[in-house]
Amino acid sequence: MTIDATAARSASDLMRIDDELTDREREVRDTVRSFVDRRIRPHIADWFEAGVFPVELVPEMAELGLLGMHLHGHGCAGRSAVEYGLAMQELEAGDSGIRTFVSVQGSLAMSAIAKHGSEEQREAWLPRMAAGEVIGCFGLTEPTAGSDPSSMRTTARREGDEWVIDGAKRWIGLASIAHLAVIWAATEEGVRGFLVPTDTPGFTATPIGQKLSMRASIQCDIALEGVRVPLDAMLPGAKGLSGPFSCLNEARYGIAWGAVGAARDSFDAALAYAQERMQFGRPLAGYQLTQQKLVDWALEIQKAQLLALHLGRRKDAGTLEHHMISVAKLNNTRIAIDVARAARAVLGGNGITLEHSPMRHASNLESVRTYEGTDEVHTLILGERITGLPAFRG
Questions:
Q1: 49 is a catalytic site residue
Q2: Domains in the chain, start-ordered, CATH in brackets?
């Protein structure tokens, strides 16, 4: 039996949430979905197995307006928050690593410049980054400072008409192929952000190998040894950790949507397989236990989709509160990894091969669930919101 891909995709939409989208939002979603079907799905198993990020996709993603697509001006597409979210959802239905590229480029590196840069910095970098001519990375996490960036050891000190940066960063997406790094460092006046061209002497990016997750993506260690940049390399609008946190919230927002895409794709793969796979004379999908699993997953995906859409509508209306992003990031990554793991089981032994997507999604989601705030971090953000009492330090 041949399974219609469109029908399989819509099977989890029990509440017809698709009807809540505008024509323009559907157009964005369908355009990105077509790109994923045409350029990512046929090759992602090979890229994942080889541990290769397909840099050849960058110009195509730029042509689609995906790079900094939610930013306005300076060559950016100026799309709505919901349109951006739908694009992230479709990209992650293809693979988390591909969505991560767009998130790092747009929600982290480009957002840092758009939010906190001078007009000269915006003009110098954003048009080229939107066009895919310049790739950026975002250097916040350190070997000893993941969930606690306030303990960062990277420093920037002023010497004459230059800043001198020393330190190390870890798990920095795209760093080895980036042309520009946004580096966060401690100064005498607090944490500040700096625009560092990656060909600056003393800057070294080394890809992290032997990964069991996000294999079609790039994460790196960065070493900063006496890196000298001019005074105007500092982002003037960011002082303190609120600067990088505002960018992290942009990335977390995209993750809340992207995780739904990974969950939905896992559901679709398991459903299609269960409808075709014959056991004891009937399709797996005809058994009560299988149908219970499919129903449970569909319910969770629907709730996550509604949560993401609500988040996007509030973001577009300017009424989004920061803790709401933690609700969606925590919930949606949690359900996505549960769906992906359970969907793999429906596929039986065949599910451990790259011919099918759920186990790849489950592997990737281990990273997605960890970066931009672990479950524990978002739980404590929400705990403080509920109780009024911060519990980050025991």
A1: no
A2: 5-130 (1.10.540.10), 136-233 (2.40.110.10), 242-387 (1.20.140.10)
